[in-house]
Amino acid sequence: MKFLKAMFISMFITLFIGGVAVATGFYRGVIEIGKDVIPIFAEHREFVRKSRPELDYITDEYKIYEEQEELTCPYTVTILLSAAGDVVLGGDNRWAGYLRFMQEFRESGNDHSIFFKNVAHIFYESDLSVVNLEGALTDIEIAPQDKEFLFRAPPHFAKILSAGNIDAVSLANNHTRDFGMRGYEDTKDALRYVGVEYFGNDSLLIREINGIKVGLFGYSIWADTADNRRRITSAVERLRNDGAQLIIAFFHWGVERENFPEQYQISTGRFTLNVGADLVLGSHPHTIQGIEEHNGRYIVYSLADFCFGGNANPPDQDAFIFQQKFTFYRGELLPDNEINIIPVFMSSVRNRNDFRPTVAEDEDAKRILARIEEYSEPLR
């Protein structure tokens, strides 16, 4: 802001010294600085990000310049999204994953930040960071149903998300209600207590970021049905009517351990973009699936597991963080959006799961990027 004020003072002085044309030329030279470029599927895994824009407007004092030269003050902002896949805090206390997760927590001195410590900086540098939260955050220990996996953690584990700089979570999955509606409501209460927002199922979220209203919704989608299309269309319309300028869908769908999406995922994902969503994210298969570009927008079919207490030693630890930078000019989304893929491992060690997602490097990073490219090829 100080720079902008100094610039306008210089313009004002220059106006009296050298005339309107000189002052106007100086102003244009400042505001037409070039833009950063981030390649798609870059091997480099971090954005070179500009500082968040400081906005200023031409005051009445300088209105004369606008009238004479038809200058306007540009209002361009960006939103950097970072999204990761399935997060299970704790797990099922009948299985080894839960016992090991709790052991890691105790051995850290009950440090909630330990699990996301290797990736927290990525989410901190983002404007919006989202994951899929599977399981309940509740003190209820006896589930009202019998399933192979019943995921839960104590409510204070919500601090793991806030310590990891997660802004919002999707609750649209097949485990959030493992401990009934009481456990579901306990989960929402725990998230609200630590300042992590949520969306999914019947909950829509609008979050204002850099002056832009971002809408998020999510559902568990197991088939491309008329009812699911109605729910998707209704969610998009409700968010748009409430002022959302950017809409992101997060679907729980697909077949576990499959690297290629089912045909119903493809048709549902494309439909969601066609009715007005700007990005579709996916989870549930517990492994990587491809990324499709459809009419200039993206469908990320499966982000894989991320911090996953449901498995003590997963056979496939590959995952990734999907990043997209959205650019708005005067509140309108521009088409030149940029994506970046950050390859990660679910664990910081290879022989077991320590539930600490870690950025992959060198040959491992290239291998994970190659997998994403392979799974994306049939979608082009």
Category by helix and strand content: alpha/beta
Q: What portion of residues belong to β-strands?
A: 15-25%
Spans of 5+ residues with little confidence (pLDDT < 50)?
1-73
Strand elements, count: 17
CATH architecture call of the largest domain = 4-Layer Sandwich
How many individual domains? 2
Our count of helices gives: 10
Separation of the first and last Cα atoms: 44 Å
Which range best describes the helical content: under 10%, 10-25%, 25-40%, 40-55%, 55-70% or over 70%?
25-40%
Question: How do the SSEs run, as a string of H and E?
Answer: HHHEHHEEEHEHEEEHEHEEEEEEEEH
Your description of this structure?
The chain is α/β, with parallel strands linked by helices and about 375 residues long. The chain folds into two domains: about 1-35 and about 55-75, no CATH class; about 80-380, Purple Acid Phosphatase, chain A, domain 2, CATH 3.60.21. The protein has ten helices and 17 strands. The chain has helices at about 1-20, 20-30, 65-70, 95-105, 120-125, 160-165, 180-195, 225-240, 265-275, 360-375, and strands at about 75-90, 130-135, 135, 150-155, 170, 195-200, 205-210, 210-220, 245-250, 280-285, 290-295, 295-300, 305-310, 320-330, 330-335, 340-345, 360. Strands 1, 2, 5, 6, 13, 14, 15, 16 and 17 form a nine-stranded mixed β-sheet that branches. It has a six-stranded mixed β-sheet with strand order 7-8-9-10-12-11. Strand 7 and strand 8 form a beta hairpin. The longest helix is centred in the N-terminal third of the chain and has 17 residues, at about 1-20. The two termini are about 45 Å apart. Residues about 1-75 have low confidence and may be disordered.
